[in-house]
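This entry is set out below.
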Amino acid sequence: MLIVLAKAKVGDGAIESAREAIATMVEASNAEEGCIDYAFTQDILDSSTMHIVEKWVDDAALVAHFQTPHMAAFQQALASLDVSVTEVSKYQSDEGSPLM
């Protein structure tokens, strides 16, 4: 499994302005073949920080994700907003196991 963790800084009002685009992106991405999970969260201690967590079956699924129409539409929607990605890392992992 491939895990992608990203962090973005957002300016005042950017999350509200992007909410519909984010919701569309999350729904479409989660429907992709090879997507295990795709989520955006707002940091509870710093409302100007968003975290993106993605789980993919493999690198090929992630590469295909970047070629989708919803990715292009999402990037276009965010282009005019005060959003800047500050970190992106990918990790290879097994399927994990419950902690509790």
